[in-house]
Amino acid sequence: MTLSGRTESIISEQAAAYGHGALTALLKYANLGKNDPGKDKPGGSWNNLNTRVSTALGKNPSSESLIALATKILNDKVTDGNEPKWVFELRASFLEDGYSLSFSSDEWSIVPVGADEIPLEPQLSQLQADLKARGFTVPMNHHKQAFSAFTRQNWEACNAATRSTMEGFLLEVATAKLGFTPGGGGAAIHALDAANYFEPGEHDYLKGLWKMSHTNGSHPGLSSEQEALFRFSAVTSALTFFIHRWKP
């Protein structure tokens, strides 16, 4: 993923707060040392700290270098429970870019959203590719919207789009397999169950997931990051499983 200009700006500002000696090591740590002009200019003048950072980053710094730079800065400057305003801003900006900041065992890390949970990023892409290959464009678009809402920290919108993803998928499958007249997700689950499309336990699981999806969406109710991630992860995993089970 490409990081936004806002994320780069926050990282650059914090890097420039280092002294000249420490900045040299910091840029080398992030594999940016080769573009660092250093403190001294020919003729006896010198580069300021902002110029050094900007020159080292160049026009299109890689996400890997920026993440390495941000991680080192966080571990140098910030302890858990003592977060200055710029860390809050960096967390929000990274989340919009699809990454999350976490602090564990006295160390900061920056990883793709969901990297320590189900679904993994490859699973998201694979499910969307499978939906597209089967012509299920409506649930595919809702799935993309759900993930986009999650990265914007709009938990209720994520829940709502996740519910629409699940319903769209079930309706597409029931229509393709059974000639089902579109109704709702619950009716589609019932039709698939009546036609013996579920193994033991699967029908109850989908019914429970479908029932849960009707709470804490855009309206009514409020949600949290953990709840939105659980729902999105559970639906993504379920659809990944069933789309292969119910091949044409």
Q: What's this entry about, in short?
A:
This protein has 248 residues and is mainly alpha-helical.
Distance between the termini: 33 Å
Morphology call: elongated
Integer average pLDDT: 86
For the largest sheet, list the strands in their spatial order. 1-2
Radius of gyration: 23 Å
User: Total number of helical segments?
Assistant: 11
Order of helices and strands: HHHHHEEHHHHHH
Major sheet description:
2 strands, antiparallel
User: Which percent range fits the helix content?
Assistant: 55-70%
- Spans with pLDDT under 50 lasting ≥5 residues? none
Overview of this protein structure:
This protein is mainly alpha-helical. The protein has eleven helices and two strands; from the N terminus they run αααααββαααααα. It has helices at residues 5-15, 20-29, 49-57, 63-77, 85-97, 121-133, 137-151, 155-178, 185-194, 202-212, 225-245, and strands spanning 99-104, 107-112. It has a two-stranded antiparallel ribbon. A hairpin with a 2-residue loop joins β1 (99-104) and β2. The longest helix is centred in the C-terminal third of the chain and has 24 residues, at 155-178.
Q: What distinguishing features does this structure have?
A:
248 residues; mainly alpha; two-stranded antiparallel sheet; elongated
